[in-house]
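Hey, resending since the last one bounced:
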Amino acid sequence: MIKQIIETGTSRRQFLKASVTAGGGFSLGVLLPGCATFADKSISENGDWRANAWLEITADSNIIFTLDRVEMGQGTSTGLTTLLAEELDVPPKDIRVKFAPVDSAYRNPDYGLQMTGGSNSISSSWGQIRNAGASAREMLLLAASQVFKGPLSQCQARDGKVTNLVSGKTLMYGELAAIAALQTVPSNPKLKSPSEFRYIGKQNKRLDIEGKVFGTTEYGIDTEVPGMVYAVVSRSPVIGGKVKQFDARDALQIKGVIDVFEMHSGVAVVAERYWQARKAQLLVNIEWDEGDLAELSSEKMFSVFKQKAEDDEGDSVRNEGDFDHAQEESSRTLEVEYFTPFLAHATMEPMNCVVHVNASEAEVWAPTQAPDLARIAVARVTDLSPSDVKVHGTAIGGGFGRRITQDFVEETAEISYHTNRIIKLIWSREEDTQNDWYRPATYHKFKATFNDTGSVTGWHHHIVAPNLFDWFIRDAAPAQYPWSPKFTYGILGSVGLAMQGIAVPDDVTATEGAVSVPYKIANLEVRHTHADVGVPISFWRSVGHSQNAFYVESFVDELAHETGTDPFEFRRNLLSDHPQHKKILELVAEKADWGGSLPKGVFRGIAVHKSFKTYAAQVVELSIENGQINVLRVVCAVDCGTVVNPDIVKAQIEGGIIFALTAALYGEISVKDGRIQQSNFHDYQLLRINETPKIEVHILASNEAPSGIGEPGVPPLAPAVANAVFAATGKRLRSLPLKL
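The structure tokens again:
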């Protein structure tokens, strides 16, 4: 007995507690002098065990999971909890979820930043979270075997307790926590095999639904902090404009108004109540210096893009065979151009934030996709260091990439710093639409060559588009080195841009989905010319894939028509080197009955695309009614590896299709005289319930590791619709939104 206690390092208090609980009797353990263990910092005074960065087991057997990705409706809290629950062998519903603070342990391993985006929450955590749960389970089993005084093989962990299979005695996880904390952390814990899964692939009930149904989920806009006041900001109506001068005398007469002052992004109004601030905002007379973009329009922008394409052949990002030779030898060529406009994110919850800055620290309550970038935003406009900033994450009412950019946090921090007050900043819908960081507008040129038999011999794709990293690097680079002095922030950004492909990844956002064309064409070249007109841009759901799939899959359809081949057969014949693309294409064609009869006036289009390591193919059925496109049915086949939560996969594909259909039919942010023309849902329309088609989702069974699912449903939709429109009308629509 004494030897066992010494070897396991179990303290007297811990051993007595466990022995009494396990046996119902009393077993006395004596520690020899000088053999007492070191205090274990993972055990609190209450006996709660912080097993690792993600898992805590309290003395009364509550299990707490620290979620290191944000929940913005995509089901991350359920998905990641399911991974932990599986290896810890407890029902997901028995685990309480809390949002992670800013800490290097919670950095997304794919990005080196604590950020949620890129549809990789499950894939990047597939091993990490399961290992955390499996390690804790093994440590609990070892602790139980010591208390039961029997071999490890006689212990079984299930449903929050460990049972001795011989005696039938049980110990709750919380009762074992103190002893488990003293076990050696397994370096390579044994993970369950798929045949042992109780929850992965089977868990469908979302853990966050109850809070949303009963209104207990706290979004950023719900945040209330005692003593806070409200702020609104008037920003330049012209992109990039600055305040020349302003008169706030009338605004300051409004009841409740605390202050009106100039800040980096415009003029702030602070008041005791939100509507007091809004009322006063209308009375602030501002004269603007409109800056360099006062004459910018969408038409001029695309003229610039076209000229860029003529003057600069761009950088080659893929080159196979010899396209120039194919062109010389061709019997004919096809040349076309495509356009897409800027798009807003239109999140249901507009931008908002609460910040309290004082002399020594700052607290932030924000619906942000990137908490460590939020710290940089606060540090930039105060005299604090990032380590002085504490970020409280909240649930998010839609992100889609918009909340990776931290301008709304930076504004709130600047106002709090200036006023020495707790500030809640809320953007109006109009401000949200007209001051977004948009999906880029882009211009694309295609050229294809054909031989004497009519076969495609060459493919040339010229992309004219800006780079997202040019805008993203401002906060991202300092966030990776938060200990850096603030005067280096700008330098870090410049170095990051200069070191692409060396110390940091290349920015592929303009070319992703275009550079990886899967079709077997002997002479294939893709080039990119950088062009940026100065309109703020950022990540938008599925990023470059959302546009490039439209271009590529529409042009493939054109080639099928030019060769007189069925669009499905044309694709399948060219996918011999990409069996996964081919498999998912064949599955969607089967489920949609491609080639089968259709009701009169109904037409089909098809598209296939790989994004975020997931293969997705879609068939759209539509009709043309009174000159309008009426999408009736969308069939989607998807291969996303191992499915953790089947219903969430379907929901994300359905949501992606609806999101993409909004963009395909209505989405357009236009510019005139440097001003964004759209302002609210009346002129930036979203798809309505009565316009939503029947959606069918078919998931290909797989034992591969999970891949992304939040975004891959978006890219194939627009080209599938455009291709169906061509089938219906004979008209090839080469710009978005699709207009007859």
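The mean pLDDT is 93.

Sorry for the duplicate.
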